[in-house]
Design goal:
mainly alpha, 28 helices, two-stranded antiparallel sheet
Length: 665
C-alpha cells in the first residue's frame, strides 16, 4: 500500500467513527504485469499436445502414451492388469460409490466378449447412480451445505433443490461450460426458468453470519461478497485469489485490485427467495414475522443511544426474539440483481470494510488479460453472465485444466496437479504437463462433456493396472508416491461410500432419489447444543433413514458423527479432495457404533437363509467382491460354529471391519 492510500484510509476510518460517511474519489489504476509474472505455467495458453508416438501392446487410450513415456524415462514398468473381479469393484465404486452385486461380478468375470470392460463402463455411466456419486465430488468443491454456519446456523430447508440440480446435471452429462454459467448466472440467463433460478443459488452456498436477524450491515455484506468471490477462484479457476483480499498476493501475480474487480461482478447480486409456499402459509408467516420485525427494529434503534450495560440487555432481547423466528417459507433459494441496492466496490485496506480505498469497476484477473484491458462499470447489465462467459471461454488457460485435473484426481487418487484448488506458484507443478493439456484440450473439443473424459481415463491401461507391482520394492524406491503411475493407487472408501455400502450389502439401502434431505435420529446431547434445537426433527418415515448419504442433511454446525469420524469435510471451505486418515475412533465406530451394529444384524439375517459354508462365501463376495481365502474361510466357519446366538451378527460386523471391505484395490 502507498503512504497516500494509508493516509486517506486512516482519514476515512476516523470520519466513520464520527458517524459521518467518506467516499474516496480515487479510482484504482489498472496496473501492468511483467513477463516474469505472466510466465507461470498455469497462466500460459494450453498447448496442442499430441500423444508421444510410442508403439506398445500395453497402450489402450492416448493417455497411456504419455504415462508410458514417463515410465520408460524413469526405467519403470507398468503393473500387470488387475483381475476382472478387482476391476468391476474398482469402476463401480468410482462411478457409483457402491459395490457391485455378486451377480454383476459373476457376469463380468464370465463374459467372453473382448469389449466386456468397455460395456461395463458404459452401463455404469448410464445409471442415475453415477450422478449421485459425482455430484458429491462437486458439492465438496463448492462447500455445499444446508445451513448458514456460525453461531445461528439457520437451516436452509430448500437447499436440497440445488443438490438435486447438480445430480441431474451430471446424469444428463450437461456440458461443463453450461453448468458453470447456470450456477454463476442462471437468473440472468432466464429469470423465469425455475431450474436456472435454483442453479444460481450457487452464489448463496457460502456460510452466512447473522446478527440477531439483521443482515443490512456493512460487515455482513462484505462477508457475503467475499464468499461469492473466493469460490470462483477456488472452484472454477483453481487459484487462491482470496489471498489478495487484504493485500497483493504474496506469491502469485494477483493484485489486490484484481480481487476487488472480480468482486465487482457481484456488486448488484443480492439474495432472493422465490416463494412457492401457499398463500395461506405466506399469510401465517407474515402474521408471525411482522410484530417480531417491528420489535427488532425498535430494539436496534434503541441500541444506538444506549449505554454499554443497556446494550447488553437489548442484545439479549434481540436474541430472544430471534429464537422465535419461524422456519423460512418454501422457496427457491436464488439471487437477483438490484441496481438500486448495488454495493460500491472499493479496495479495502487489510480487507476491512471500514478502511475504504480507491473505487474499482469489474474486470477478470489482470495477469490473464492484455495489459490495460479496461474495466466495466458496476452498472453493466448481466454482470455475472459476463464473468461466466470469461471463465468458461475455451481461451481461458485455467478452467478446462482445473476440471480435467479434478476428474483425473477422483479416478486416480491424486491429480496430475496434486493441489487441485491451487494452480499458482505455491501449488505443485503437474507431474505430466503435456498430458494435462491434452486432457483439457480433448475436454473442450468434446463439447465440455465429462463422460468422454471418464471413458478415456477408465478404459486406459493405466487405470486398469493392479494395485501392486511385481517390482514393488525397487519401483517404490525410485517413485515412492507413485507419481509416474507404475501401478494403480489403492484407496480407502470415503465416509459416504462406507455408510452406503453397509446399507447396500445388508439389503437396507433405500434407492429413492431426490427430494428434501433426511434428518436422522441422533444423540439428543448433540442436538441440545444447537442454537435452535427445536428445528432438528428426525424424519418420521424410518425407511427414509436408509437412503444414500448424499440425501442426508448437511448441516455446518453438526456433521453427522459417523461422517465426521471418517473425514467428511466441514463445508465451511472448498474441499478439493478428501483427506484420508486412519485412527482408533474409526475402528471404535465400526465395532461399537449404532449404525454398523444395526446393519450387521440385517446382513446376518440375509446370510442366515443359507447353509453356514455358503454364508461365509456369500458374505465375503457381497461385501468385498471376492471369495474368502482358505484362512479366512476356516476362521469364519469356526466362529459360526459357536452356539452363541450373537455369533452370526458379530461375524457380519467383522466383515464391515475388514480392509477388504474398506479399501478398493
Amino acid at each position: 500500500m502507498t503512504s497516500d492510500f494509508r493516509r486517506r484510509t486512516a482519514c476515512a476510518a476516523a470520519i466513520c467513527l464520527l458517524g459521518l460517511s467518506a467516499e474516496p474519489v480515487a479510482v484504482a489504476p489498472l496496473g501492468r504485469y511483467t513477463a516474469v509474472e505472466r510466465r507461470h505455467w498455469a497462466f500460459q495458453p494450453r498447448r496442442a499436445a499430441l500423444p508421444p508416438s510410442i508403439r506398445d501392446a500395453w497402450i489402450r487410450t492416448p493417455i497411456d502414451n504419455f504415462v508410458l513415456e514417463g515410465l520408460r524415462k524413469a526405467e519403470l514398468m507398468p503393473a500387470p492388469e488387475a483381475d476382472r473381479a478387482t476391476l468391476i469393484r474398482r469402476v463401480t465404486y468410482d462411478l457409483h460409490g457402491l459395490p457391485p452385486t455378486v451377480a454383476e461380478v459373476d457376469a463380468f468375470v464370465k463374459d467372453p466378449s473382448p469389449k466386456a470392460y468397455e460395456s461395463l463402463v458404459e452401463r455404469l455411466l448410464a445409471s442415475p447412480r453415477y450422478g449421485e456419486q459425482w455430484a458429491r465430488h462437486w458439492l465438496d468443491v463448492i462447500r455445499f451445505a444446508e445451513s448458514d454456519g456460525y453461531e445461528y446456523d439457520m437451516h436452509r430447508p430448500d437447499a436440497f433443490r440445488f443438490r438435486d440440480y447438480v445430480i441431474q446435471s451430471f446424469n444428463e452429462d450437461k456440458p461443463y461450460d453450461v453448468f458453470l454459467k447456470e450456477q454463476l448466472a442462471g437468473d440472468e440467463i432466464d429469470p423465469n426458468n425455475e431450474t436456472l433460478l435454483v442453479a444460481s443459488g450457487f452464489n448463496r452456498l457460502g456460510p452466512l453470519r447473522k446478527n440477531a436477524g439483521n443482515q443490512e450491515v456493512a460487515s455482513s455484506r462484505t462477508e457475503v461478497l467475499t464468499e461469492m468471490t473466493n469460490i470462483v477462484g477456488a472452484a472454477f479457476l483453481g487459484v487462491t485469489i482470496g489471498c489478495a483480499r487484504c493485500h497483493d498476493h504474496k506469491f502469485d501475480a494477483f493484485r489486490q485490485s484484481d480481487y476487488y474487480r472480480l468482486q465487482g461482478y457481484f456488486a448488484q447480486t443480492h439474495a432472493h427467495d422465490v416463494l412457492i409456499a401457499t398463500p395461506e402459509e405466506q399469510a401465517k408467516f407474515k402474521a408471525m414475522m411482522d410484530p417480531l420485525e417491528a420489535e427488532m427494529r425498535r430494539l436496534r434503534f434503541a441500541m444506538r443511544r444506549a449505554s454499554e450495560e443497556e446494550k447488553g440487555k437489548l442484545q439479549t432481547q434481540l436474541e430472544e426474539l430471534d429464537e422465535r423466528i419461524p422456519p423460512p417459507l418454501t422457496a427457491f433459494y436464488t439471487v437477483a440483481n438490484k441496481k438500486d441496492e448495488m454495493t460500491p466496490i472499493h479496495m479495502l485496506e487489510r480487507g476491512d470494510y471500514r478502511n475504504k480505498g480507491p473505487r474499482v469497476g469489474m474486470r477478470p484477473i489482470g495477469v490473464l488479460l492484455p495489459d490495460d484491458t479496461p474495466e466495466l462499470p458496476l452498472e453493466t447489465e448481466k454482470p455475472r453472465l459476463r464473468l461466466a462467459e470469461w471463465v468458461a471461454s475455451p481461451a481461458n488457460p485455467l478452467t478446462a485444466r482445473v476440471m480435467a485435473n479434478r476428474v483425473w484426481g477422483f479416478h486416480f487418487g491424486r491429480g496430475l496437479v496434486a493441489t487441485p484448488n491451487d494452480f499458482g506458484k505455491m501449488g505443485l507443478r503437474p507431474t505430466h504437463p503435456e498430458l494435462l493439456d491434452y486432457l483439457a484440450g480433448q475436454f473442450v473439443a468434446g463439447g465440455w462433456t465429462l463422460k468422454p473424459l471418464h471413458r478415456m481415463l477408465m478404459n486406459s491401461a493405466t487405470y486398469r493396472q493392479a494395485s501392486a507391482s511385481p517390482d514393488e520394492k525397487a519401483f517404490a524406491a525410485k517413485d515412492p508416491s507413485n507419481k509416474l503411475l507404475w501401478k494403480w493407487n489403492r484407496r480407502r472408501l470415503e465416509a459416504e461410500e462406507i455408510r452406503d455400502s453397509m446399507l447396500f450389502v445388508s439389503g437396507r439401502l433405500n434407492p429413492k432419489a431426490g427430494g428434501p434431505s433426511v434428518l436422522p435420529a441422533i444423540d439428543p446431547e448433540l442436538i441440545k447444543d444447537l442454537k435452535r434445537p427445536q428445528y432438528w426433527m428426525a424424519t418420521k418415515d424410518i425407511r427414509e433413514h436408509d437412503r444414500r448419504t448424499i440425501y442426508m442433511i448437511y448441516k455446518r454446525n453438526l456433521i453427522l458423527p459417523f461422517m465426521q469420524v471418517f473425514d467428511s469435510p466441514d463445508t465451511l471451505l472448498s474441499c478439493a479432495r478428501r483427506e484420508q486418515s486412519t485412527h482408533a475412533p474409526q475402528a471404535l465406530e465400526l465395532l461399537n457404533g449404532e449404525l454398523s451394529n444395526r446393519l450387521a444384524k440385517d446382513f446376518a439375517a440375509l446370510l442366515s437363509k443359507h447353509p453356514k459354508a455358503v454364508q461365509v462365501d456369500l458374505a465375503w463376495r457381497m461385501a468385498t467382491g471376492r471369495a474368502p481365502n482358505a484362512n479366512e474361510r476356516t476362521l469364519a466357519l469356526s466362529y459360526l460354529d459357536d452356539p452363541d446366538p450373537v455369533a452370526a451378527n458379530e461375524f457380519a460386523l467383522s466383515i464391515f471391519n475388514t480392509n477388504a471391505f474398506l479399501y478398493v484395490n
